[in-house]
Amino acid sequence: MMDKLKVGIAGYGVVGKRRRDYIDDHPALQTIAVSDITFDGDGRFDNGLLYFDNYKKLLDQELDALFVCLTNDVAAAATIGGLERGFHVFCEKPPGRDLADIAAVRSIACKRPEQVLKYGFNHRYHDSVKEAYRIVQSGRLGKIINLSGVYGKSKLISWGQTTWRTERAIAGGGILLDQGIHMVDLLRLFAGEFVDVSSFISNDFWNKDVEDNAYAILRTADGKIAMLHSSATSWRHRFELQITLSKGALVLTGILSSSKSYGDETLTISSASNDESGDAKEETIYYESDPSWALEVGEFADAVISGSNIINGSVNDAYSTMELVYKIYCADAVWRDKWGLGWQP
């Protein structure tokens, strides 16, 4: 029997602890050490798990893989540190505070093709998204005409979250970078790369130094149009992605999460009618389980063990998604100049 791969988790908060559940459930992985700034020194838990009060100490351990679940200001540095130590690395989204962070990581990763680097763009693994993608790829509903995505929270900081997400020096951005980046990634998944970007960015309601609303209109080179609203003033958690095609439409609503606050996860499939009644034939599928966390950990493990390619969340994917987020920020000249975001393609 193959020895289990030894895993360390940098950042042992809510996400790090949840990651550990799925890491240790995988037959080829085992968490042996964790780090978090809330620990009072270093030591060993009763179950044998090592703990450290700084992620840099974790880099000195004999690990095979490192999971980075840290704040945005240190995520890129920890990822680079893990790669330079020879570890395979899984990093949560976003890949850093800005485009320069992921560019620095990519330059290191490109020199180490034998090591696996994967980013946690978790929504691609949800059943509703996977089924919608299969339908689009099959061509049964024709070609994509346009897309519309709304992803919103009830407030800038949800219950139980720490306030670092409102501090630009740590977070780098607000609701768009923290949550809307998932929708940006999905728009890229379905439509491809966007070459034209217009936007309005604001922080007029919560008055923090990061955005609480981002509105964008995007266009691909072949004419697909996407509209995006990433909001921290939805007053209830909301997820909706509508994809209009030449022979029908797909509407994804709700996303299963640990909080269960986004409602039921559903996919409604509409087939265009042959007359002008507008009465499309519809089917709605309800999803009751969330396999996404296990699936993305599984893909990471498979890539480490067998050398298979990362399909979702590669360093190039992460760079392209972060680049589009940055284009959305910089397309609003007032926001760009206010924070000195200067765009360098």
Overall description:
The chain has 345 residues and is α/β, with parallel strands linked by helices. The protein has 10 helices and 15 strands. The chain has helices spanning 14-25, 55-58, 72-84, 99-109, 127-138, 168-171, 175-191, 292-306, 315-331, 333-339; strands at 5-10, 29-35, 43-44, 50-52, 65-68, 88-92, 117-120, 144-152, 194-202, 213-220, 225-231, 238-245, 248-253, 265-271, 281-287. The protein has an 8-stranded mixed sheet with strand order 9-10-11-8-12-13-14-15, with helices on one face. A 7-stranded mixed sheet has the order 3-4-2-1-5-6-7, sandwiched between helices. Strand 12 (238-245) and strand 13 form a beta hairpin. It is globular. The N and C termini lie far apart (48 Å).
What would you say about this model in short?
By secondary structure, the protein is α/β, with parallel strands linked by helices. The chain has helices at residues 14-25, 55-58, 72-84, 99-109, 127-138, 168-171, 175-191, 292-306, 315-331, 333-339, and strands at 5-10, 29-35, 43-44, 50-52, 65-68, 88-92, 117-120, 144-152, 194-202, 213-220, 225-231, 238-245, 248-253, 265-271, 281-287. The chain is globular.
